Amino acid sequence: MATSYQDDDSFASGAEFTDNVDKRESLGKVFEVIFLIGLLIGIFVLALLLFDILGDGLGRFLSPGFLTDTPSRFPDQGGIRPAIVSSILLGLVVIFVTVPIGVGAALYLEEYAPKAWWTVVIEINISNLAGVPSIVYGLLGLGVFNYLLGFGPALISGALTLSLLSLPVIIVTSREAIRAVPDSLRNASYGLGVTKWKTISSHVIPYAVPGILTGVIISVSRAIGDAASLIVVGAVGFLTFDPGLFQRFMALPIQIYSYITRPEPGFASAAAATIIALLLLILALNGVAIYIRQRFSIR
Amino acid sequence: MQNYTSQDDPYLLPRQSLDKDISEDISERIVGAILFACALVSVLTTFGIVIIIFQETFGFFQEVSFAQFFLDTKWTPLFAERHFGIWPLINGTFLTTAIAMSVAIPLGLCSAIYLSEYAQPKVAAVLRPAVELLAGVPTVVYGYFALLFLTPLLRNFIPLEIFNSLSAGVMMGIMITPTVGSISLDAIKSVPRSLREGAYALGITKLETIFKVVLPAALSGIIASIILGISRAVGETMTVLIAAGLQPKLTISFAESIATMTAYMAQISGGDSPRGSLNFKTLYAVGAVLFVITLSLNIVSYWIANRYKEKYE
After folding, report:
1. CA-to-CA distance for B91 and B87, rounded, in angstroms?
2. Best CA proximity match to A195, nearest among B24, B7, B10
3. Which of A43, A244, A265, B238 could form a disulfide with B140 if both were Cys (CB 3.0 to 4.6 A apart)?
4. Domain B87-307 annotated CATH 1.10.3720.10
C-alpha cells in the first residue's frame, strides 16, 4: 500500500524524486570514504609496525657488534652474525635450486607441453602446491631430507625445503613472463630455420628475464622470511659459529622467534633489531631485482 | 596451452624434413626431456608430501584409535595422562581464522572496491602495491607486533590474557587482507563495463551500482578469494605460535590463550623428537588434518574461481 502511494507520488512531483537522488548520492559519498578508510587501515598498520619496530630496535641494531658478533645469553650483548650467514646461504641455495628447475618447468609448460590430461594435472597440481602451508613443507623436508637422505637437521635440509616451498611461485610467475613474449619473435626465429631450443634460449628467455626475475625475488624474499618450515626441519635459535651446508643452522626469522620467546625484557629490542636486519635484507634483494630489471628492459 | 607444441607445429614440420644434422635433433630432444623433468618435480613434491605424511599418520593410528583422535575433547599428548582429541586444536585454529577473516574480508573488499571503482589510475598504481606490501612482511614480524604492540594496547580496554586469540587473529587478518583484496579486485575489474553503464542508464547511483550490479556479478571471484584467505589463515604458523599461545582448549573466548594445529606442530618439532616416537607421529597426524583441510579449501576456491571465469570470457 505504502509503496504504490510513493510510486505515484514520485511520478507526480519531480521535486521529491530529485531529493531522493541527492540522499542516495550523499550516501554514496559516505561509502566512498568508508571504502577509502578500509583501504588505508592496512597501510596505516604497516606504517605503525615499521615505526614501532624502528623505535624498539634501532638503538640495539646500531650498537657495536650487533651484526658481527655471535649470539649471547645476555639480552644486550652479542649479535646475529650466524643468523645472517645462515639466511644468506639459505637464499643462495634456494636461488641455485629453484631458478633452473622453476624456469625449466615454466618453459616446458608454455612451449613444449601438449594439450593432454596429464599437463592439466601438472598445472592444477602446481597451483595447489602454492597453497600448501609452509609448515607442511617442513614435514616433507623432515621426512625426505633429514631422514630419507640422511642430512639430519642441517642447513642443506632447510635450504632444500625452502626451495620446494618457493618453486610453485617461480613457476607461475615465469610462465606469465614467458607467455608475454610476442609470438612474432618466435615466428621470426623459426622462419630463419632456427631450432626450437635455440629460439627459446636466444629469443624467448632473454625477453622474459625481467618478468622471471620479479618472480624469483618475490619467492626468495618469502623463503628468507619463512620460519615455520625451518622450525620443523630443525633450525636452532642459538649458534656460536657460522654454519656450513651440512651443519646445524639458524635463520633470521628463527633468531627473531627465539628472542621473542625469552622472558627477559631486553630480548624484545634484540628481536626488533633482528627484524630490522631481516627487512633490510629483503629490501636489498628487491633493490637488486629492480636494478637488474631496469637494465634488462632498456635494451 | 601455448601455440608451439612439437607435434602439431606447422613451422617446425618443414624444418625437420630439411634437417641435416641428426645430433642437433637429438640434443633438441634431450632439452625437451630435461624441461619435462623440471615440470615433474612439482608432481614428485606432491607425492612426497602425501606419502610421507600419510605413512607416519598410519603409524600414529596403529597406536591411537580413531575414536581417541576424533571423539576425545582433550589434547594432552605431552602430559603424563595422555589424550589425543584433535578438537581443541581445530577449535583454536578456526577461532583465530574466524577473527582473522572478520578483519580481512571487510578490509580486503573495501580495498578492492575503492581501487577498482573510485581511485584514479595513478592513485591506484601507488596504493595497490602499498597494500600488497602487507603480504611481503615475514609472518614472524606480525607475531612480534601482535604480542608486543597490539596485545598491550588492547589490554588497556579489554581484559585479555597475555597470549590470546584476538591479537593473533587481528594481525593475521591484516596479513591476509591483500590475498582477499587482490583476487577480489581482479574479479571486480573483469565485470564488463556494459553492466555498469546499463545500471547508470537506468538512473542508479554509483554506490547502488556497486552493491546491486558489480558485487553480485563478481560474487564467485570474491567467494574464491575469501576461501583462499581462510586457507591461508588455517595454515599460518608464526603469528599464532607467538601471540596466541600453546594451550589447547575448547573455547570461543577470544581473550584466552589457545593452541592451533600449526602452533602445536611447531612446538613439538624442532627436528629433536626421536623418529618413531609417538610424539613424532602426532606431528604428522596433526599435519595430515591440516593438509586435508587446506587442500580441500584450495580446491573449492580453485573450482569456484574457474566456474566464474567461464561466465564472461
Report:
1. 6
2. B24
3. B238
4. yes
Where residue A183 sits, what CATH number does that domain have? 1.10.3720.10
| Amino acid A2: pLDDT | 43
Mean pLDDT across A35-56: 96
| Enclosing H/E stretch for A197 | helix A196-199
B296 contacts chain A (CB < 8 A): no
Q: Do A134 and B235 touch (CB under 8 A)?
A: yes
Is the ipTM higher than 0.85? The answer is: yes
Cβ contact B145–A282 (<8 Å): no
The domains of chain B are located at: 20-62, 87-307
pLDDT in tens, A129-145: 999 999 999 999 999 99
pLDDT value for A22: 82
How many residues are recorded in chain A? 299
Cα B168 to Cα B144: distance, rounded to the nearest angstrom: 10
Q: How many domains does chain A have?
A: 1
Terminal Cα distance for chain B, rounded: 16
Residue B148: pLDDT band by 50, 70, 90 thresholds? very high
Residues of chain B in contact with residue A282, where contact means CB-CB under 8 angstroms, are: 136, 138
DSSP A127: H
pTM of the model: 0.89
Tell me how many degrees the CA angle B301-B304-B310 measures, rounded to the nearest 5.
Answer: 140
Domain-located, residue A279: yes
Q: Per the CB < 8 Å rule, is A108 touching B41? A: no
Q: Which three cell numbers stand for residue B305?
A: 574461481
Mean predicted lDDT score pLDDT of chain A: 88
Residue A293, pLDDT > 80, answer no
Cβ contact A196–B127 (<8 Å):
no
Asked if residue B236 lies in contact with residue A133, where contact means CB atoms within 8 angstroms, the answer is: yes
Examine residue A286 and state whether it is found in any structural domain, yes or no: yes
In whole angstroms, how far apart are CA A51 and each of A56, B114, B164?
9, 26, 24
Chain B residue closest in CA terms to A164: B45
B227: its cell numbers = 576461501
Is B12 at the interface with chain A, CB within 8 A? yes
**B201 and chain A: CB distance < 8 Å anywhere?**
no
Hey, is B10 helix, strand or coil?
coil
pLDDT, tens digit, 9 for 90 and up, residues B208-262: 999 999 999 999 999 999 999 999 999 999 999 999 989 998 999 999 999 999 9
The whole-angstrom separation of Cα A205 and Cα B138 is: 31
Residues B180 and A80: their CA atoms lie apart, in Å, by: 35
Supply the pLDDT for residue A269. 92
Sign of CA dihedral B66, B287, B48, B275: negative
Q: Looking at the domain assignment, is residue A242 inside a domain?
A: yes
Residue A34 placed within a domain: no
